Amino acid sequence: MTEKFRNIASASDWWVHPTGPTNLITDIPGVTVGHFTHNSGETARTGVTAILPHSGNLFEQPVHAGAAVLNGFGKSAGLVQVAELGEIESPIILTNTFAVADCTRAIIKRTIAQNPEVGRKLPTVNSLVLECNDGVVNDIPAFHVTEPRGDQAIDAATSQFDQGTVGAGTGMKTFGYAGGVGSASRMVRLPGKNGKSGKHSYHLGALVLSNFGQKSELRIMGQKPISLNPAQAEPADKGSIIIVLATDAPLDSRQLTRICKRSSAALGRLGSYLGNQSGDIAVAFSTQNVKSRSGEVVYDAQLLSESCMNAFFHCTVEAVEEAVLNAMWHGRATPAYSGKILPEFAAFFTQKTA
Q: Which domain, by its residues, includes 305?
């Protein structure tokens, strides 16, 4: 965010923890993100975003993971097995509600191409695909996202990526404004003995597919920047958010699930009450302690002390909160297939603070 945006509440010290080098989820070494953006014609305002925990064969080398369903109004694929086994073994795909099946098939075929015995001598792959409904802007029943689009997003994955109305976020709406994909990161500095600064520090990053919130409820740094006429009708909050968290700290599945649960605090700070038809889901993974399926039955692994988890909880809340704000800040006015245009938050905010 720009300094002007950061200082909306005259609180330049709002963020307690320092950001990573690029303030993106890709500050976690090895993590990459790719988009396919479909913004064409009169009806297509949609896309796909892919998050890769590492560049290797994810089916052969899954990462430890956790998940939390904050509000279960959603149509994901693969979430149940992540919660059960504590592993992610595929790229994480974000897209619109009606594209889950096509993106799932794309992952399956890609995994079989890498591992020809999948589904035969090897287990089937658990494709992880998560969604939000972009039907306010995108003509979602037109099925603009097809199977090859998932591959295009995966193939585009890199350490630098755009935010806002791109990829899966192309047609998403956050607190009444355009913008769906946002990211942020934090340095997690752990204390040493007797409260002194320790030698251990890690990264924690967040990427959100943000599609939730009522304009009148928005809070930024504790302030309410928008006042609506009480007589002005406002649609109910029927949106959703997908939160993906990544870290290079040695957290196990249970600890990763714990940080997923804390992400809901960030939504509350922004003014969300997790509305009735809101699908709010968080998944988290660690790039440490990766084990090959064909490796040893028993392997050595590090594990973070439970006494250090508060630092990760706090960084999670900050990173998710800022990621949502970044999704809005980078959003660009998006004409809907119905003719409606979602406004730009950056333009509103510039006028508000001029």
A: 3-353
Residue 283 sits in a domain of what CATH number? 3.60.70.12
CB 286 within 8 Å of CB 256: yes
> Terminal CA-to-CA distance of the chain, rounded, Å?
17
Domain total of the chain: 1
Tell me if the pTM is above 0.70. Answer: yes
Catalytic entry in 127, 183, 185, 240: 240
- pLDDT tens-digit profile of 301-326? 899 999 999 999 999 999 999 999 99
Strands 32-40 vs 44-52: parallel, antiparallel or unpaired: antiparallel
139, 264, 280, 286: the active-site residue:
280
Q: For residue 338, how many other CB atoms are within 10 A of its CB? A: 12
Q: Is 300 designated active site?
A: no
Whether 278 sits among the annotated catalytic residues: the reply is: yes
Catalytic residue among 76, 127, 278, 286: 278
Which SS3 state, helix, strand or coil, does residue 302 take? Answer: coil
Query: Would you tell me the crossing angle of helices 309-329 and 345-353 to the nearest 10 degrees?
Result: 90
Active site residue 240: yes
